[in-house]
UniProtKB/TrEMBL annotation:
Residue span, GST N-terminal domain: 17-91
Protein name, per record: Glutathione S-transferase
SUPFAM superfamilies: GST C-terminal domain-like, Thioredoxin-like
One Pfam entry name: GST_C_7
Domain GST C-terminal: 96-238
Family: Belongs to the GST superfamily.
Organism expressing this protein natively: Apatococcus lobatus
Length: 238
């Protein structure tokens, strides 16, 4: 433990979904909280969690879960807002109504458009990286969700990658005019979208972006800026 957070009661424990390799933390939503904690310079303890450990995070059903001493928080957005409220310095959310609404839109876009565009490309990679005890649960639950075997969710990776690049066009256009989605500094919009890329980086070697893409350069800037959160985790060079 390097630093004690001023505003948040310690100890902080973040439950993080990992693959067979405990350093392969891959949940995009956990990544958001990781990045917010790094953004604020807050230290925490990480606990590896796997899908079949549901009882450990009860009453939550999904990670991220953050334990702040005796308080248990769930939902990446709510956890991030809680951290922001306790550490208003270097804000990641907007204090003005219009800014907050636009950010809500961007977060929903990352969840409802970007994430589903990425999912078919990397779902088999996720499966292949899972701990053995998680594989049956993941297969059954995802095959139910998609209505087909995992192996048939994506039958044409290059076509899905092209579609993904197309879906990213609004982000591309924004980043060709601005250094960060947050403008002069990264905000939760950058964090939400980088979280999705960190999910892919953790499990998959697929080349999602061309080097000439403005998003490629931004992604590298984000990875450099938040290197402290990424160091020591397993992932592929992008
Ligand atoms: N809306 C939630 C979504 C969290 C979520 O979907 N977490 C996944 C990992 S990426 C999970 O824990 N899934 C458990 C399961 O599928 O059983 C948030 O933003 O925190």
């Amino acid at each position: 433990m390097a630093k004690i957070a001023a505003g948040l009661v310690q100890p902080l424990r973040l439950w993080e979904l990992a693959g067979a390799d405990p350093a392969r933390v891959f949940s995009p939503y956990v990544w958001r909280v990781r990045l917010v904690l790094a953004h604020k310079g807050i230290d925490y303890e990480s606990t590896v969690w796997r899908y079949n450990d549901k009882r450990l995070i009860a009453p939550a059903q999904k990670v991220p879960v953050l334990d702040v001493k005796d308080l248990r928080l769930a939902e990446s957005r709510d956890i991030s807002q809680y951290i922001e409220d306790k550490h208003p310095d270097k804000p990641v959310f907007s204090s003005c109504q219009a800014g907050a609404t636009s950010l809500d839109f961007l977060i929903s876009w990352a969840d409802c458009v970007m994430n589903p565009a990425l999912m078919p490309i990397i779902i088999l990679d996720v499966f292949n990286q899972l701990a053995p005890q998680d594989k049956a649960y993941f297969r059954t639950s995802r095959e139910q969700r998609f209505g087909k075997p995992l192996e048939q969710i994506c039958t044409d990776i290059p076509a899905e990658v092209e579609q993904f690049r197309h879906v990213m066009e609004p982000v591309r256009q924004t980043l060709s005019k601005h250094k960060w989605l947050g403008g002069r500094e990264p905000n939760y919009g950058d964090i939400a979208i980088a979280g999705n890329f960190l999910w892919a980086r953790a499990v998959s070697q697929h080349n999602l972006l061309e080097e000439s893409d403005a998003i490629y350069a931004w992604r590298q800037r984000m990875f450099d800026r938040y290197a402290v959160a990424i160091e020591g985790t397993s992932g592929y060079d992008l």
